[in-house]
Amino acid sequence: MNAEMPPGRQALRLVEAMLFASAEPLSERDLAERLPAGSDVPALLAQLQGECAPRGVQLARAGAGWSFVTAADLSPLLARERRIEKKLSRAAIETLAVIAYHQPVTRGEIEEIRGVQLGKGTLDALFEHGWIEPRGRRETPGRPVTWVTTDGFLRHFGLGTTAELPNVDELRAAGLLDARPAIRVLQPDGGDDAGGPSVAIEPLDPDGG
Amino acid sequence: MNAEMPPGRQALRLVEAMLFASAEPLSERDLAERLPAGSDVPALLAQLQGECAPRGVQLARAGAGWSFVTAADLSPLLARERRIEKKLSRAAIETLAVIAYHQPVTRGEIEEIRGVQLGKGTLDALFEHGWIEPRGRRETPGRPVTWVTTDGFLRHFGLGTTAELPNVDELRAAGLLDARPAIRVLQPDGGDDAGGPSVAIEPLDPDGG
Amino acid sequence: MSAATAVALAAETSPAEDLDDGPFPSDAFVVDLDGWEGPLDLLLALARAQKVDLRRISIVALADQYLAYVAAARRASLELAAEYLVMAAWLAELKSRLLLPEPPAADEPSSDEMAAALAFQLRRMDAMREAGKRLLARPQLGRDFWQRGRPEAIPERLEVVVSADLNGLLQAYGRHLRRRRGEAPLALVEPVALDSVEAALARIRNSLGQAPGWESLARYLPEGALAGLREGSLTARSALAATFGAVLELARQGVLVLRQNQPFGPIYLKPGNQEGERR
To answer: Is residue B82 pLDDT above 80, yes or no?
Structure first.
């Protein structure tokens, strides 16, 4: 059946087959390696994603990786497959949210934001889930490690990029995505953006100080 | 997107998702159990199979069950190429060198030149790499085949013709015919000058004989 | 999730989880301090109980509530962690400074700024708490959607690349040529004048009987061999072996007799009885 198939169609079938065969996500580079030279991988992925949208199995992107997953709306119908899973502690969930929204963020900054010391195993647990990883260091005294979320995190929560995090734009606009100590955040001439993430901080209250 | 979907369509999506996510092929009964009562499973499977026919992933019957598989015609394209670097054995590279410098040359002559019998697969391996080939026969008893190097050999080693191989004098000039012994066994005088073979051995007993 | 993770998570799970959604208990004097993850957590719960936008929270009112809560806890003789007391002291001071404004020191934040910072911290905490809940409300892999259940093995085409270069080829030929010319056999045994039994026989015959009585075998070693033996020299060892072999042979022939007083002891020899006949 492939004899008369146009080359673009054939490349699309190949991308579909590669992604379908694999349980793990494939990057655009993984795909390009096995496609004819000069294939427009992003265009093929976009086309495939569009074609699959109404189907029961959809093409999802998570960071650098692409994979097929079942459509989320089928969840209740597929419920028999549901596994009872351990609930994450509130501390773990909050810590994950802090890392996701403030990344890259140090342990100290996480504690500052949550107003409490991090329990012993919290970061470990999130790391073991494959949801966070250390990347880079903050160039402040002690050069603390900074934490970021992984593609595995995006994939688990069905997010294409961190820009798709719920409410991320609103929170940023409200100036709440600033990991510096509150008193420094509020001092416009505090001047030390040394440690702070490169988020543009808008004044909390235009009238206030 | 499922809100306005016709029930038949929704059942089809469900079948697709179930078959995709299942670790084992699913029988028609397995499928029927999780579909709305009265669903025509064979009809759904037939429809799904038809829709998938031109795609890179196809619905296939596997024994009593059904499962998705990648389209068979894509298999050669899917294959991942893995390059394994293998070093040529010392015997093989010496044999190749002898053929390169002495061609055309028979197996017997190679053995004569190298002073050792050719291992079983040596010529085969060189032939498989496309570096040597049999050409002509020696007009001696038994009319043995003679071996020569190929154009592939010249290409691989970046040579225009075999005449570009350095001659013996040039090899010597390049230090490739360094005459220092490979292994020094005896050093009667306690190893004064390790490199020199010119150790004068004095007679143990001038009177003896 | 591994067992270790589950344990770690369980250890951190606080009873405050139930408080996520419900409003702060109206009876603030039902004190349960176990549930709070620190004073800020308690403050946030109190602030939310004010049921106003956190941006319009009254820090003075919040400070009052916190102080009342802490006072109630102390009346109930509950152990209060030091951090709660530190926060109480800080809030009491902040409240008094807010009520009785004073000119701020040049290098210190004003009481208004401190109040705003606290309000911001509560809002940021609240936002993250909310974000965590929204995140968990999303469909999750393995719970709401699934990946391929039966991954297919991608066939692999092995391409064996033989690494060989011209230099290697030439070196190989060079090796071969060397061998062929005998310039450098693989194992070179250089000619060495080792002592032979024949030489030793002649040596012993020549000097036997020059001294009367028993003589040490060592005397019949070639010159320099004794020193060589101490160094482990091969030629010296060969001389010793040859000499010993010759001595045995001569003893067999009756030319000399041997004596050794103890195992591994020195070996002595003297001319045998038939020595004269042999001569």
So the answer is: no
pLDDT of residue C10: 31
CA of A57, closest CA in chain B: separation in Å? 6
Tell me which fold the domain A7-77 belongs to.
Arc Repressor Mutant, subunit A (1.10.10)
**Could you say which residues of chain C have pLDDT below 50?**
1-29, 184-188, 275-279
> What are the residue boundaries of the structural domains of chain A, listed by start?
7-77, 90-165, 178-209
Which of C40, C109, C145 lies nearest to residue A69, judging by beta carbons?
C145
Tell me the two tokens of residue B208: 């003896």
Give the list of residues 6+ apart from residue A180 with CB closer than 8 angstroms, or none: A109, A112, A195, A196
pLDDT, averaged across chain A: 83
Distances from the Cα of B9 to the Cαs of B13, B19, B65, C18, C80, in angstroms? 6, 15, 22, 41, 61
Concatenating the DSSP letter of every residue in B132-173 gives: EEEEEE-SSTT--EEEEE-HHHHHHTT-SSGGGS--HHHHHH
Give the mutation candidate from C145, C167, C176, C235 for the B interface (greatest B CB count, under 10 A). Answer: C176
Selected from 1.25.40.10, 1.10.10.10, 2.20.28.10, 2.40.50.140, the CATH number assigned to the domain covering B90-165 reads 1.10.10.10
* Mean pLDDT across B71-79: 82
How far is residue C196's CA from residue A125's CA, in Å, rounded to a whole number? Answer: 80
Q: Can you point out the beta strands (E) in chain B?
A: 26-27, 57-62, 65-70, 80-87, 105-106, 132-137, 145-149
| pLDDT score at A189 | 56
- A-C contacts (CB, under 8 Å): 193
- Say whether pTM exceeds 0.80: no
CB contact under 8 A, C146 and B85: no
Summarised one tens digit per residue, pLDDT across range C27-57 is 444 556 667 788 888 898 888 887 777 878 8
Q: What residues in chain A have per-residue pLDDT under 50?
A: 1-2, 81, 190-209
Q: A7-77 with A90-165: one CATH topology?
A: yes
pLDDT digits (tens, 9 = 90+) for A15-69: 999 998 888 899 999 899 888 888 899 999 999 999 999 999 999 999 999 999 9
Query: How many CB atoms are closer than 10 A to CB B182?
Result: 13
Sign of the four-CA dihedral B41, B47, B50, B56: negative
pLDDT of residue A86: 65
In this structure, are residues C250 and C204 in contact, taking their beta carbons and an 8 Å threshold? yes
- How many Cβ atoms sit within 10 Å of the Cβ of residue B34? 16
Tokens of C236: 């010296």
Q: Which residues 97-116 of A have a C-beta within 8 angstroms of C?
A: 97-98, 100-101, 113-116
Q: Quick check: B87 and C162 in contact, CB under 8 A?
A: yes
